[in-house]
Fold:
Amino acid sequence: MIRDETLQEELTAYLDGELESEHRCRVEERLARDPEFRVELQRMQRAWDLLDGLPRSTVDHSFTRTTIEMVTLAAVAEARTQSLEIPRRRRRQAILAALAIAGAALSGFAIGVTLWPNKNRQLLQDLPVIENFELYRHAESIDFLRKLEASKLLDTHGDDQEASDGS
Amino acid sequence: MSITESTARRYELQDPDVRLMLSVRDDNAAAFDELMVRYQDRLITVLDHLTGRRDLAEDLAQDVFLRVYRARKRYVPGAKFSTWLFTIANHVASNALRSRSRRPELNLDSRASGPMGANPLDQMALAASGMMPARQIDKAELREMVRSALANLNERQRMAVLLNKFEDMSYADIATTMELSQEAVKSLLMRARVNLREVLEPYLTEGSVPTDIKG
Structure:
């Protein structure tokens, strides 16, 4: 018996018609000149051919019927699951939509706060000017007002401080 | 691995059973019945010889068909239909054999106590040793002997042999079905052939089995 696994693999693939033409030619050449190789091939083929005697199974109608019944039950269960899934899916979709809307509203508010200035804050900041608007109107220019501020002539806060120190 | 549209189209054009399965995908019950009728005997033949038990083979075949039905909506033809079906069968059978090996209850070859009495392989080994006289073998005994020789292969060798012998699958299709390389399939089949030959050698050389076997 040939023990070389590569040769045995080649013989197997040759018998199964799985060899490329080049390999097939090489095997056939060796078969032509090597009687031991030929005997090996014949024995392998004979053992393989014995498998042809194994019985093929056939099933009766009850197998087909019970299988169809099983599949039908699976189909019914699948349909029931799907029908139960529909309201659940719709509810899930409604929740998701509400969450999406709320999320979008929150994001919009955050963006708005970031991008647009707060008008009230601006008004609060300008309150001293608004309160004394009539006085400021008599000033000739912004430069004049700045110089007036720099001279601290109108610094009421400083007067109040001096008054409290004097008392 | 994803299946390209051209591959799916090619198999759809080449294989009528792929077209039937695509009809099953579209909930065509008659197409499923047709596929079952076409494949149930083939599937049970392979599973019967693979597991050594007809009742188990039928249970597994039903499981395979049920899985085919449940997988219909995800079905995209990436191979011949038979290759796809036997890939599922290979998974189902492997799982069943694995779980059975964890809780052994029966010998894999339940037919070991067939017409030949005890395990024919043991008796053939005895015959080969020249310790028993020989007589001509009859057909039923021969079938039993071959069945035992097949059962003596390991699970993967047995599956490769069955797909090659009964399904006439190429090495490439066996490789896809068993999720192996073609080289591995080549090696599996070589070892299987060598094992079968070694076991069946006494019959091959003498054409006989011991007279004591039949009793």
Observations:
- Chain A touches chain B through 34 residues (CB under 8 Å).
- Chain A has a mean pLDDT of 82.
